[in-house]
What does this fold into?
Amino acid sequence: MQSSHSASAPGGAKLAAHFASLDVQKHAARLGMWLFLATEILLFAGLFACYAAYRFLFPEAWAASSRSLDLLMGSINTIVLITSSFTAAMAVHYAKEGKNKLVGHMFFLTLLMAGAFLVIKYFEYKHKFHIGTLPGRYYFYDGIQVPGAPMFFTVYFASTALHAFHVIIGMTVLAIIMVRAYRKGDFGPNNYTAVELGSMYWHLVDLVWIFLFPMLYLV
Amino acid sequence: MQEHHGAGRYVAIWLILSVLTVVTVLTGRMHLPSFGLLLALVIASVKGTLVALYFMHLSEHRGANRLVFGVSIFFVVLLISFVLMDFGTRFRLANPPGSQYSDLQAVDIGANKAEGRFGGNTHEKQDHEKHE
It folds into this structure.
C-alpha cells in the first residue's frame, strides 16, 4: 500500500504504517482517548467517594458550609463552562468542514471563557482565604462552628483545585490546536482527530464541573 | 466517516444545558429537605449524559467507546456505594466523634484565628499571646 512509514492522504492526515486505513487509525485514536478519559473519571471518583462519606457523616456541616459559598459566582462559572464546551463542540463541527479559521476562532472563544472561569475561581478562593473557610487545621471561620465543616472545605479545595488544574491542561491543549488551525490550517473532513480529541478533553472538564457544582454549591 | 450534523444540534444541546443549570440553581435554593440532593444529582446526570452523547459524540461512536465509558461510570457508582454501605452499617463507636452516627462529642471543632483547629497558626498565636 505504501513504501515509506507514512503517506500523505487527501486532507493532510498521515496514515501510520501499522494501521490498515485512515478510518481504523481514527477509531484507534478515539478509543485510546476514551480509555484515558475513563482513568480521569476514576481519578475524580476518589474525591467523589470522599465527599459522599463525609456528607453522610456530617450532613449539618455540609449544608451550613455549602450555604457559605457564593452561589452566584458558582452559577456563572457553570454557564461559562457549558458555553465553552459548546464552542469546543462547534470547533469540531467546523474542522469536519475544513473551515480552519472558524476552528481557531471557536477555540479562542473557549480559551477566553476558560480564562474567565479561572478568574472567577480566583476571587472565590481569595474570599475563602480571607474569612478562613480553609481545610483542616487552617480553618478559622467563626460563622460556622460545626463538627465536619473543615472537612467540607478540604473536599472543596481538593476537588476544585484538581478541576482547575485540568482546566489549565485543557487550555494548553486547545491553545496548541488553535495555533495549528490558524497557522497550518490543515484540518478537514479526513483530518480532524486532533480537534476532536482536544475537544473531548475539554468536555470532560465540563462534565466533572457539572457534577461538582450541585455537590458543592447546592447541598 | 462519522455522520455530520448541522450546528443547530449543538445550539439545542447548549440551550437545554443552560436551562437545566437554571432549574438546578432554583430548586437548590429552595433547600428541599429530603430529595434536594437527589434531584440535583439527577439533573446533573441528565446534563452529563447530554454532554457525553452529543458534545463528545458518544451517540455515534462504536460500541467499544461506549463500553469503556459505561464501565468507568459503573466503577464510580460501585466505589461510592460501597463506601456508603460501610459507613451506614458501622458499629456506632467506630464513626468519627461529632458525626451524625456517633454518640461522642467532637474533641475540638475549631476556634478563632489564633487557636485554629489543632493549635492554629503559630505566628498568629504568638502575636495573640503578646497582645495579652
Summary: The two ends of chain A are 60 Å apart (CA to CA). Residues 1-10 of chain A have pLDDT under 50 and may be disordered.
